[in-house]
Design brief:
By secondary structure, the protein is of the alpha/beta class. It is built from 13 helices and 17 strands.
Length: about 400
């Protein structure tokens, strides 16, 4: 008999009842170091006093009103994001998939409203992940995720990441723009080179295309800048954000230049819950922390320190790990052993990580993680790797 909760996830047999900072406690009383952050979502960790206080105070006033009325909290939040980014205007929604769905719509709408309705196709990249709606599944292009859901939504062409000539060759008379993640999270912590992002910007400018960036996982301070594309010194025309934007409260956003945003006129798009007072209160609390002086610079410092530790593990345990990847606090270890085996060994040590493509385990701690907690994670990784190394050697001897 099927469970009351639909079986859409292969869930680990652990349930958590409380959290504090970077730590989670299971209902069995065991403490775990959370280097998954709800897939890069719990940006301020668990039970952060500013975030909890903001949500509590807002909930006592008003939780939700319809977007048919003004929402001052949303207006102020949009202005803060505009002031801190390339964008001129912001639309709020509830998730990364919804943000990317709206991003796709705004690209198509802008082309249609400027006399180019035939231009509706987006060039996307192999290894991408843009969401689980029908359109974002098509943009993702992964056959495993598309199977069984009928005809694939038209309008998406896929090329290899960091191959600018493949992008150039894919541009045609129906191309509207390019959609790229500066760092592919689900794809295995695969980063665009700065030169590639600059070349994409130049191609879009040359051909009159829209450059769209999916910053759902790599944005909101995760790499040590508010948005990951800032490292390349280029700016998109439209970008999506979600996950860490409200510290675990459901929220997404589309940030756009005026040339695109002006085409989303009343009735053309909407979201019942998007930008409601409670979600905005949470997002304001997150911005208060991550935009405070020195905070993002400290994410850069901690990320470099942690990555150096991961690279040392790769050198010491080549039978377990083959490569350290990523930037800031969006990091990954490519595994020589099956990632499920590595993840289980880490759980036994008390460290929570998230699997990704290319046999990579992701390490995405809350942005407030301390040096001592990074060292604790490295100790757990080292202990797990030592056990896995011995197991791998025994298997090699047995096979010989």
């Amino acid at each position: 008999m099927i469970a009351a909760l639909m079986p859409t996830y292969s869930r680990a047999p652990i349930a958590f009842e409380r959290g504090e900072g970077v730590w989670l406690w299971s209902d069995q009383g065991r403490r775990y170091l959370d280097f998954g952050s709800g897939v890069a979502t719990s940006s301020l960790g668990h039970n952060h006093p500013q975030l909890v206080g903001a949500i509590t105070a807002q909930a006592a006033r008003v939780i939700h009103v319809s977007n048919v009325f003004r929402i001052p909290e949303a207006e102020r939040l949009a202005q803060r994001l505009v002031d801190a980014s390339f964008a001129d205007s912001v639309f709020f929604c509830n998730s990364g998939a919804e943000a990317n769905e709206g991003l796709i719509k705004i690209v198509r709408k802008a082309m249609a409203e400027t006399g180019r309705p035939e231009r509706y196709r987006l060039i996307c990249f192999e290894g991408a992940f843009h969401g689980r709606t029908l359109a974002t599944l098509a943009a993702t292009g992964n056959a495993k995720y598309l199977a069984g859901f009928g005809p694939v939504v038209d309008g998406f062409d896929h090329v290899p990441l960091n191959d600018i000539e493949a992008v150039r060759a894919a541009i045609g008379p129906q191309t509207a723009g390019i959609l790229v993640e500066p760092i592919q999270g689900e794809g295995g912590i695969r980063a665009c080179t700065p030169a590639f992002l600059k070349a994409l910007r130049a191609l879009c400018d040359e051909h009159g295309l829209i450059l769209a960036m999916d910053e759902v996982q790599c944005g909101m301070g995760r790499t040590g800048r508010l948005f990951a594309h800032e490292w390349a010194g280029v700016a998109p025309d439209v970008a999506s954000a979600a996950k860490g934007i409200a510290g675990g409260f459901p929220m997404g956003a589309i940030l756009a230049r005026e040339s695109l945003a002006k085409h989303l006129t009343p009735g053309s798009h909407g979201s019942t819950f998007g930008g409601n007072p409670l979600a905005c209160a949470a997002a304001h609390a997150v911005l208060d922390v991550i935009l405070s002086p020195g905070f993002l610079d400290d994410v850069v410092r901690k990320g470099a320190r942690l990555k150096a530790g991961l690279e040392a593990l790769v050198q010491k345990f080549p039978t377990v790990f083959t490569e350290a990847r990523g930037q800031g606090l969006l990091l990954g270890l490519k595994c020589a052993l099956p990632q499920a085996e590595v993840q289980e060994a880490l759980i036994q040590e008390g460290l929570l990580v998230i699997n990704a493509a290319e046999n990579v385990v992701r390490l995405m701690p809350p942005l407030i993680v301390s040096d001592a907690e990074c060292d604790a994670a490295l100790d757990m990784l080292r202990a797990a790797a030592a056990r896995l190394h011995k197991t791998a050697n025994k298997r090699a001897v047995a096979a010989a």
